Amino acid sequence: MKEKLQKIRENAIAQIREAKNLNTLNDARVAILGKKGELTSVLKSMKDVAPEDRPKVGQLVNETREEIEKVLEEAKAKMEAMVREEKLKAEVIDVTLPAKKNNVGHRHPNTIALEEVERIFIGMGYEVVEGPEIEYDLYNFEKLNIPEGHPAKDEQDTFYINKNIVLRTQTSPCQARVMEQGKLPIRMIAPGRVFRSDEVDATHSPSFHQIEGLVVDKNITFADLKGTLEEFAKELFGAETKTKFRPHHFPFTEPSAEVDVSCFKCGGKGCRFCKGSGWIEILGCGMVHPHVLEMCGIDPNEYTGFAFGVGLERIALLKYEIDDMRLLYENDIRFLKQF
C-alpha cells in the first residue's frame, strides 16, 4: 500500500507540474482527488485492509493527500499570478494620455435672451404668465378686437384645428385670460411659442416665440408705455440706446406704434447691421383698445392700459448678431457651442 501511495504521489506531482494552465491543472486535481480519483479509490478500498493496519494506512493516505494538495495550491497560485500579470500588461493605462473632455451642455441662445428679458421686467414688478398653445378662436382673435372676416383669421396665416380652435398666433390670449379674472391692477409678460402659416427662410418660421406685455391700471398713459420701453431697451442693448416710436395700426391697441432702437453697433451713424439707417425695429406696442377692455370685463372709463409684443428670436438675432433664424433650430453643435 505504501508503494502504491508513493506512486500515486509521484504521478500526481508530475501531472501538476506538466499543467499548462488553470484548466489542465483543475483536470489533474479531479483525476487525483475527485470522486473517482486515484487517491479517493484508495480510501474506498480501506475496507479490505486488516483492522489493525487501517490507522497506519489512513495516516499514509492523509499525508499523501496533504502533500498533493500543497503542491496543487502552489501551482495554482503561481498560475493565477502569471494570468494577472498578463492581464495587467494587456490592460495597461498610459497616464500621460490626455483625459477625455467632459462636455457639459448649456442654455440655448433663445433661453439666454428670454431669461434676460424676464429679469428686466421682473425687476420692474411684472409677473410671468403662461397659457395654452392650442387656443380658442375667441381668445386668440375675438377678444382682441379681431372680428370675423379679418385678414389675420385667414387660413393662409393661421393654423386651424377646427372652426373654433387654432394654434395660437400670439401670446396675447394670455392677456385676455388674465384680464377676465378681474384682478387689477395687472403687470405681466407672457412668453411662449406661437404659430403662423409662414414659409421657412432666414427671417420666418411656422413656429417661433413671442414675449407680450400688458399693464392695466388707473391713469395709465402713453408716457408710461414710452418710459417702460425706453428702460427696457437700455437694459437690453446698453445705456446709450435711444428709442423711436412710429405710428402704426394694431386691432387691439389704439393708438399703436412700432418701436425702433438706435443701432448698438454703430451708435446710430449707419452700418451694415442697421442697413445704413441708424435704427433697428424691435417691437410693436400701443394703448389697450377700450373695446378689448370691455370684452374682458374691465371698465374702460375707469381703467386704461398698454400692451407690447416682441419676437424672442428677433432679440436673440440682434443681440448675438445672427444672420439666419434657422441656425437657432438646426441644433448644429458648432453654432450652439459659441454661446
UniProtKB/TrEMBL annotation:
Task: Give any single GO term for biological process.
Answer: phenylalanyl-tRNA aminoacylation
**What does this protein need as cofactor?**
Mg(2+)
CDD domains associated with the record: PheRS_alpha_core
Q: What class of enzyme is it?
A: ligase
Alphabetical GO CC annotations of the entry are: cytoplasm
Q: Which residues bind Mg(2+)?
A: E254
Catalytically driven reaction(s): tRNA(Phe) + L-phenylalanine + ATP = L-phenylalanyl-tRNA(Phe) + AMP + diphosphate + H(+)
Known EC number(s)?
6.1.1.20
> Annotated Gene Ontology MF terms?
ATP binding; catalytic activity, acting on a protein; magnesium ion binding; phenylalanine-tRNA ligase activity; transferase activity; tRNA binding
Keyword annotations from UniProtKB, A to Z:
Aminoacyl-tRNA synthetase, ATP-binding, Cytoplasm, Ligase, Magnesium, Metal-binding, Nucleotide-binding, Protein biosynthesis
- Which Pfam families does the UniProt record give? Phe_tRNA-synt_N, tRNA-synt_2d
Q: InterPro entries, alphabetically?
A: aa-tRNA-synth_II, aa-tRNA-synth_II/BPL/LPL, Phe-tRNA-synth_IIc_asu, Phe-tRNA_ligase_II_N, Phe_tRNA_ligase_alpha1_bac, Phenylalanyl-tRNA_Synthase, tRNA-bd_arm
Q: Which domain of life is it from?
A: Bacteria
Q: How is the cofactor bound?
A: Binds 2 magnesium ions per tetramer.
State its location(s): Cytoplasm
The keyword Oxidoreductase appears for this protein: no
Q: Where is the Aminoacyl-transfer RNA synthetases class-II family profile domain?
A: 117-330
Family statement: Belongs to the class-II aminoacyl-tRNA synthetase family. Phe-tRNA synthetase alpha subunit type 1 subfamily.
Q: Check the record and name the HAMAP family matching this protein.
A: Phe_tRNA_synth_alpha1 (MF_00281)
Subunit structure as annotated in this protein's UniProt entry: Tetramer of two alpha and two beta subunits.
Protein name stated in the entry: Phenylalanine--tRNA ligase alpha subunit
Q: Which organism is it from?
A: Anaerosacchariphilus hominis
